[in-house]
From TrEMBL:
Pathway: Amino-acid biosynthesis; L-methionine biosynthesis via de novo pathway; O-succinyl-L-homoserine from L-homoserine: step 1/1. It catalyses: L-homoserine + succinyl-CoA = O-succinyl-L-homoserine + CoA. It comes from Glaciecola punicea ACAM 611. It is an enzyme of class 2 (transferase). The lineage of its organism: Bacteria, Pseudomonadati, Pseudomonadota, Gammaproteobacteria, Alteromonadales. This is Homoserine O-succinyltransferase. HAMAP family: MetA_acyltransf. One of its GO terms (molecular function) is homoserine O-succinyltransferase activity. GO terms for biological process: L-methionine biosynthetic process from homoserine via O-succinyl-L-homoserine and cystathionine. Belongs to the MetA family. The record marks 192 as: Important for substrate specificity.
Length: 305
C-alpha cells in the first residue's frame, strides 16, 4: 500500500521517480480502508529536504498512511518558501483536536541552547503533553529526543567537547525488542549533534529500555516498554550527502569543523562517501510503524487515551 501525500507536495515527484509507491490524496479517498494517521512536526530549517527524507522512510510499508505536516506558528523559516508552508503545513493549534496513530518530531539545530531559551519551548511542552493522550506512539529524533527526555523524565543533557558528526557503529542491546527486529547485531547510523544524555540517566528511568548504543556516540535508541515513546539520538533519515552538506556549510561559516567520522572513504572528503546506514534506517521506521503503531493502535482512534 502507498503513502498518501498532497498531489502538489514537491516530495511526491521525487518519490515517484525513485519507484516508491506514493499516491495523491484524491486517489486515496477511493480506498475503502482505515489508513494510518501520522503527524510530522518538522523543526528542521530546510523543511522540504527533511520532508522527503522522512516520507521516503515511511513509504517502505504495506500500510496506507495519511500525513499531516505540522508547525507551531506562522513564522517564515529562512530556508523554506512561505508559500510552501502555507500550502502544506497545519498549525498545531489546528490539529490538536485530532488523534494520531503516530507522530514524528524531527531534530533541530538547537543543541547549545537551554530548553527554556528555545522560543517555541512552551508550545513544544504543550505538544509533548498532548501527545501522551492523543498519539499512540511518538518518535522523537536527535534534539527532539533529548528535549522529550528532559520534559518527561527531567533528564539533563551535557554539551560535548565538539560536534559529534559522522556515521558510527552501534550494537543492538535487546534483539527481542520489536523495534530492533531484523537488525544485524552491529549496524551503522549517522549522528550530528553537540549534546548528549548520559547512558546512566537512561538506565535509571523505570519503564525505559536502551535498545541500541555506540561506544563513540552513546545511546542511539531507547523506548518505553508501553511503546508510546521512542527516542533516537541520531539521524536515520539522512540522505547520502546530508553530512557532507553540513560539513561544507560549517566550513564556509568559519567554524573549523572536524571531518565527519567514518563517512568519507579514509576520512578524506575527496575520496567519496561510504553509504552504510540506509537499510537499517528503513528497517527502524518500518518496525516502528508496524509493531509500535499499527499493532497497538485502536481501530477507532477516539478510543485512544
Amino acid at each position: 500500500m502507498p503513502i498518501n501525500i498532497p498531489a502538489e507536495l514537491p516530495a511526491l515527484e521525487e518519490l515517484l521517480s525513485e519507484n516508491i509507491f506514493a499516491m495523491n490524496d484524491a486517489r486515496a479517498t477511493s480506498q475503502n480502508i482505515r489508513p494510518m494517521q501520522i503527524g510530522i512536526l518538522n523543526l528542521m530549517p530546510n523543511k522540504i529536504e527533511t520532508e522527503l527524507q522522512i516520507l521516503r522512510l515511511l513509504s517502505n510499508t504495506p500500510l496506507q498512511i495519511n500525513i499531516d505536516l505540522i508547525r507551531f506558528d506562522e513564522t517564515a523559516p529562512k530556508n523554506t518558501p512561505a508559500s510552501h508552508m502555507q500550502a502544506f503545513y497545519h498549525l498545531f493549534s489546528q490539529v490538536k483536536n485530532k488523534k494520531y496513530d503516530g507522530l514524528i518530531v524531527t531534530g533541530a539545530p538547537l543543541g547549545t541552547l537551554d530548553y527554556e531559551d528555545v522560543h517555541y519551548w512552551p508550545q513544544m511542552c504543550e505538544l509533548m503533553d498532548w501527545a501522551k493522550h492523543n498519539v499512540q506512539s511518538t518518535f522523537y529524533i536527535c534534539w527532539a529526543a533529548h528535549a522529550a527526555m528532559y520534559h518527561y523524565f527531567g533528564a539533563q543533557k551535557s554539551l560535548l567537547d565538539g560536534k559529534l558528526s559522522g556515521v558510527f557503529n552501534h550494537k543492538v542491546q535487546d534483539e527481542q525488542n520489536e523495534l530492533m527486529r531484523g537488525f544485524d547485531p552491529e549496524f551503522w547510523a549517522p549522528h550530528s549533534r553537540v549534546a548528549q544524555v548520559n547512558r546512566s540517566t537512561y538506565a535509571s528511568i523505570s519503564g525505559l529500555e536502551i535498545l541500541a548504543e555506540s561506544e563513540q556516540a552513546g545511546v542511539y535508541a531507547a523506548a518505553t516498554t508501553d511503546k508510546r515513546l521512542v527516542f533516537v539520538t541520531g539521524h536515520p533519515e539522512y540522505d547520502t550527502a546530508t553530512l557532507e552538506q553540513e560539513f561544507a556549510r560549517d566550513t564556509q561559516s568559519g567554524l573549523l569543523p572536524q571531518v565527519p567520522s567514518n563517512y568519507f572513504k579514509n576520512d578524506v572528503p575527496e575520496h567519496g562517501i561510504m553509504v552504510r546506514w540506509k537499510s537499517h534506517g528503513n528497517l527502524l521506521f518500518t518496525n516502528w510503524l508496524n509493531y509500535y503503531v499499527y499493532q497497538t493502535t485502536p481501530y477507532d482512534l477516539t478510543q485512544l487515551t
